[in-house]
């Protein structure tokens, strides 16, 4: 199976995606269905580190209707779906309905914990990573065990991620969604619209993987419906 995993890694790399760990569902666990409708026995998480998929996505998007809704989700489904077909898996996405527990799967696969912003903190990538989908298999695919990572947020005393937003959108009490949305859409929200979330950018970890401003602007426009 090691050869198959290496082949999957290579196939994903053609579009800037990476394998983000995997796990085997417990016998008594209610698992989603695999490619033939039987319960899946294992899952491999697919995602990105930094903005590596961006140029691949842009080339694909040039050939699509510019009015397409959720183009990044559509691209990821297409790319991961093709890999799933080649390797006998079912591809699923974080935006599929009903929602699948992707964050719980990610914590399980990579042994990560959430940051104060809700994004999982990665020991290398910081907050600059994402999960784009998963490959579900109906046989047990053993993925190498990953050691529990140091949770960098525990070592961060200053917590600049909770002090940089002008409307205090993030706090230990959670995310003030409406306050954030109103600010991003408003007259004073230009820095967020063009350069991304100020709290996220204030995090000192994983800065080598920080998304470029145009990528952050794309995600902020999607969030704000602009």
From TrEMBL:
Highest taxon of source = Bacteria
InterPro entries found in the cross-reference section: 4Fe4S_Fe-S-bd
UniProt domain 4Fe-4S ferredoxin-type: residue ranges = 142-175
> What is the name of this protein?
4Fe-4S ferredoxin-type domain-containing protein
The protein's matches in PROSITE patterns, at most eight in alphabetical order, are given as: 4FE4S_FER_2
Task: Record the organism.
Answer: Mesorhizobium amorphae CCNWGS0123
